[in-house]
């Protein structure tokens, strides 16, 4: 035991806060789904997990709480680690098919992980038609959403006939992994949002040495002070049915694939990016849903809380929580899709030029803050200042293979802490875009209506483009 304790390492304040924020009504879990048209071989999957996932030591570590040190948390290697305890093979539940998989993912999203073991679990779902599915759960205290994408992609190959994984002779660099080769840094709004200068990022990290860095942040420039003031003075978001007291039960669903080229065509016609078009369509979908539920929508803006990765390139293959937040006002009150797209593009452009993400990161990771203080900040930032958590991840452009089988599609959701009942994930993969919606079953029992509205909004924008081309 003494040797095991000597290998332990402390939690960061942010990671500890994500552990403590767990409540039955909002588990701090990142949940991913992968679907295959062919059945996965369990033994081949285990070999892949053993030699690719477990090279990250964190996936062999459990939590240890030192009650004598004011309840401080540490990571320690689980002396009884058993891979079979983390990979479970199950039959597809009723009603079967995608509906059954969605019901299972919603159930697992609100099912706590065993805190006596490393905080991750994989369900291999069999009888998924002619194929299989994986439901992967990772606790947010291990890593953020960007890291989950890295973890999932670290398991994959670019070819079906790739050799069976073998024990690595030495840790691989990020550049040598599949992730480093084919995917842009995810959890970002745009390229510009991640291209923060090294000088500014280093300055932001340096001021974390001072718990009262708020006094000096204005020295970094008017832009930084403006972003900080905006964040601190931001009021509680508008009350809608999307926010309220959450229950335990969750619902998840996702859209049919949309061709990325079709989305680009809409953006080209109206001067917007792919992100602008997708976020505008989702805003229209939320408007349609509120109207469907007979809620007032005129002049309504609600905020999306958007996690933005601020990891430097050399840290892409490291775990932990390294992200900031931006708050995007969604013009739900605008009915016309073209006017809505124009307003959203303007707001997106304004965010791209701001320092909001790094300032939010500085607040979350400020030296001197206890985990309880960070927890309170997370609840305030997510639960009071926003209505939905929205992630947009540009994924691999080509087909990937896991354990020798092609991955048909990938989807994931991050937690919705602070009493939020709505999480939206937009992910591109092999030239297609999928939208996933996770909701609290009591607040939003029918997330498929939101997905249906999203697809109708995309169709409406395509019709407007067609009218421009053929008046």
Would you write up a description of this structure?
With 471 residues, this protein is of the alpha+beta class. It folds into 2 domains: 181 residues, Chloramphenicol acetyltransferase-like domain (Chloramphenicol Acetyltransferase); 256 residues, Chloramphenicol Acetyltransferase (2-Layer Sandwich), CATH 3.30.559.30. The protein has 15 helices and 16 strands. Strands 8, 9, 10, 11, 12, 15 and 16 form a 7-stranded mixed β-sheet that branches. The chain has a 6-stranded mixed β-sheet with strand order 5-6-7-2-14-13, sandwiched between helices. A 3-stranded antiparallel β-sheet has the order 1-4-3. A hairpin with a 2-residue loop joins β15 and β16. α10 crosses α15, α11 packs across α12 and α11 packs across α15. The longest helix has 22 residues. The radius of gyration is 22 Å and the shape is globular.
């Amino acid at each position: 035991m003494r040797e095991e304790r000597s290998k332990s390492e402390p939690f960061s304040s942010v990671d500890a806060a994500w552990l403590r924020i767990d409540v039955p009504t909002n588990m701090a879990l990142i949940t991913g789904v992968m679907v295959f048209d062919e059945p996965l071989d369990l033994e081949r999957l285990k070999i892949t997990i053993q030699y690719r996932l477990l090279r990250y030591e964190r996936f062999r570590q459990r939590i240890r709480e030192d009650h004598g040190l004011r309840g401080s948390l540490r990571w320690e290697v689980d002396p009884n680690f058993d891979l079979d305890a983390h990979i479970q093979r199950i039959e597809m539940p009723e009603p079967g098919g995608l509906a059954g998989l969605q019901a299972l993912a919603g159930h697992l999203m609100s099912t706590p992980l065993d805190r006596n073991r490393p905080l991750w679990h994989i369900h291999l779902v069999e009888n998924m038609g002619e194929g299989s599915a994986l439901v992967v759960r990772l606790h947010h205290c291990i890593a953020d959403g960007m890291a989950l994408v890295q973890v999932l992609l670290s398991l994959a190959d670019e070819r079906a006939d790739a050799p069976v994984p073998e024990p690595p002779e030495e840790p691989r660099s990020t550049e040598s992994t599949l992730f480093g080769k084919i995917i842009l840094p995810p959890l970002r709004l745009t390229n510009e949002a991640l291209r923060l200068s090294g000088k500014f990022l280093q300055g932001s990290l340096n001021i974390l040495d001072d718990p009262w860095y708020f006094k000096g942040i204005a020295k970094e420039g008017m832009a930084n002070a403006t972003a900080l003031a905006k964040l601190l003075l931001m009021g509680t978001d508008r009350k809608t049915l999307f926010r309220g007291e959450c229950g335990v039960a969750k619902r998840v669903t996702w859209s049919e694939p949309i061709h990325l080229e079709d989305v680009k065509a809409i953006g080209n016609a109206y001067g917007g990016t792919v992100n602008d078009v997708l976020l505008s369509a989702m805003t229209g979908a939320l408007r349609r849903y509120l109207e469907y539920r007979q809620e007032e929508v005129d002049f309504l803006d609600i905020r999306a809380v958007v996690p933005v990765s601020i990891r430097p390139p050399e840290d892409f293959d490291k775990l932990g929580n390294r992200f900031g937040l931006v708050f995007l006002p969604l013009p739900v009150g605008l009915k016309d899709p073209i006017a809505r797209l124009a307003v959203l593009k303007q707001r997106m452009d304004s965010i791209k030029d701001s320092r909001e993400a790094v300032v939010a990161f500085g607040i979350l990771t400020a030296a001197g803050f206890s985990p309880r203080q960070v927890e309170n900040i997370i609840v305030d930032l997510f639960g009071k200042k926003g209505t939905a958590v929205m992630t947009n991840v540009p994924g691999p452009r080509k087909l990937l293979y896991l354990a020798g089988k092609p991955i048909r599609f990938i989807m994931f959701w991050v937690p919705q802490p602070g009493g939020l009942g709505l999480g939206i994930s937009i992910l591109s993969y092999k030239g297609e875009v999928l939208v996933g919606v996770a909701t609290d079953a009591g607040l939003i029992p029918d997330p498929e209506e939101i997905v249906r509205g999203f697809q109708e909004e995309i169709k409406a924008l395509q019709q407007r483009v067609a009218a421009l081309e053929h008046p």
